[in-house]
Amino acid sequence: MLAPIATNSIRALHCSIERFLPARGLLTRVIGDFKAWGPLKAMSGPKPNVVFVLGPPGSGKGTQCQKLVERFGYKHLSAGDLLREEKGTPGSQFGEVIDHHIRNGTIVPVEITCRLLDRAMQSSGKSHFLIDGFPRNKDNLDGWNREMSDRVNLQFVLFLECPEEVCVQRCLNRGKAGSGRTDDNIESLRKRFKTYTNDTLPIVEYYDKQDLVRRADTSCNDPNEVFKGVAKHFEPYESTK
């Protein structure tokens, strides 16, 4: 029997939204829509295998994930892309909430992100997933452990290491090239790096204590060269696919 959505999940979502939505009616509607999603549906078949991909903005998470998809056949799920897609969906009940957090370099309520990830995993037909940009803080971690950890097998955490100055320049170049991302600007980047340092690095340390972190240096601007250091962490798992 599926468990109902935890009351503390609704309370956490309520507090996060209430901080910036002035309209009480909109707040009530958003909470109501979240409840209407109902409990998470049971996964069919064996538990899916998951690799978290973490690193600072501009460290090459998307680029390396694409190469991993091509080489090892994983399904790539970007938490950021799923949130941006939901934000741009006409009539989305969470679009305004997501837009606020993206523009301010803060983290979207984990209840929303977990639901989007779960929906994407179940609709993909795949069993091996790369989830990049998540979990990004303790709230993300607690929410994942509460709602998703028993539903998947976490293989390891891929941590992409890259100096901040290199990452910033990559993001700015990406913005100039027309990435279409509202956060590829210096003001948002400052906030994102502050969030990364304060909130995401402790998550890496948490998993490192469990011997689940695999590191790769992505400071080189040649993605193919970087991939050599990334791929070696996945080769031992090829026989499990």
From TrEMBL:
<keyword id="KW-0418">Kinase</keyword>
<dbReference type="GO" id="GO:0005634">
    <property type="term" value="C:nucleus"/>
</dbReference>
<feature type="region of interest" description="NMPbind">
    <location>
        <begin position="78"/>
        <end position="108"/>
    </location>
</feature>
<feature type="binding site">
    <location>
        <position position="221"/>
    </location>
    <ligand>
        <name>ATP</name>
    </ligand>
</feature>
<keyword id="KW-0539">Nucleus</keyword>
<dbReference type="InterPro" id="IPR000850">
    <property type="entry name" value="Adenylat/UMP-CMP_kin"/>
</dbReference>
<protein>
    <recommendedName>
        <fullName>UMP-CMP kinase</fullName>
        <ecNumber>2.7.4.14</ecNumber>
    </recommendedName>
</protein>
<dbReference type="InterPro" id="IPR027417">
    <property type="entry name" value="P-loop_NTPase"/>
</dbReference>
<comment type="similarity">
    <text>Belongs to the adenylate kinase family. UMP-CMP kinase subfamily.</text>
</comment>
<keyword id="KW-0547">Nucleotide-binding</keyword>
<keyword id="KW-0808">Transferase</keyword>
<feature type="binding site">
    <location>
        <begin position="58"/>
        <end position="63"/>
    </location>
    <ligand>
        <name>ATP</name>
    </ligand>
</feature>
<dbReference type="GO" id="GO:0006207">
    <property type="term" value="P:'de novo' pyrimidine nucleobase biosynthetic process"/>
</dbReference>
<dbReference type="GO" id="GO:0005737">
    <property type="term" value="C:cytoplasm"/>
</dbReference>
<feature type="binding site">
    <location>
        <position position="181"/>
    </location>
    <ligand>
        <name>a ribonucleoside 5'-phosphate</name>
    </ligand>
</feature>
<comment type="function">
    <text>Catalyzes the phosphorylation of pyrimidine nucleoside monophosphates at the expense of ATP. Plays an important role in de novo pyrimidine nucleotide biosynthesis. Has preference for UMP and CMP as phosphate acceptors.</text>
</comment>
<dbReference type="GO" id="GO:0006221">
    <property type="term" value="P:pyrimidine nucleotide biosynthetic process"/>
</dbReference>
<dbReference type="InterPro" id="IPR006266">
    <property type="entry name" value="UMP_CMP_kinase"/>
</dbReference>
<feature type="binding site">
    <location>
        <position position="84"/>
    </location>
    <ligand>
        <name>a ribonucleoside 5'-phosphate</name>
    </ligand>
</feature>
<feature type="binding site">
    <location>
        <begin position="106"/>
        <end position="108"/>
    </location>
    <ligand>
        <name>a ribonucleoside 5'-phosphate</name>
    </ligand>
</feature>
<comment type="subunit">
    <text>Monomer.</text>
</comment>
<dbReference type="InterPro" id="IPR033690">
    <property type="entry name" value="Adenylat_kinase_CS"/>
</dbReference>
<feature type="binding site">
    <location>
        <position position="192"/>
    </location>
    <ligand>
        <name>a ribonucleoside 5'-phosphate</name>
    </ligand>
</feature>
<keyword id="KW-0067">ATP-binding</keyword>
<feature type="binding site">
    <location>
        <position position="174"/>
    </location>
    <ligand>
        <name>ATP</name>
    </ligand>
</feature>
<dbReference type="Pfam" id="PF00406">
    <property type="entry name" value="ADK"/>
</dbReference>
<dbReference type="GO" id="GO:0033862">
    <property type="term" value="F:UMP kinase activity"/>
</dbReference>
<keyword id="KW-0665">Pyrimidine biosynthesis</keyword>
<feature type="binding site">
    <location>
        <begin position="133"/>
        <end position="136"/>
    </location>
    <ligand>
        <name>a ribonucleoside 5'-phosphate</name>
    </ligand>
</feature>
<dbReference type="GO" id="GO:0036431">
    <property type="term" value="F:dCMP kinase activity"/>
</dbReference>
<dbReference type="GO" id="GO:0005524">
    <property type="term" value="F:ATP binding"/>
</dbReference>
<feature type="binding site">
    <location>
        <position position="140"/>
    </location>
    <ligand>
        <name>CMP</name>
    </ligand>
</feature>
<dbReference type="GO" id="GO:0036430">
    <property type="term" value="F:CMP kinase activity"/>
</dbReference>
<keyword id="KW-0963">Cytoplasm</keyword>
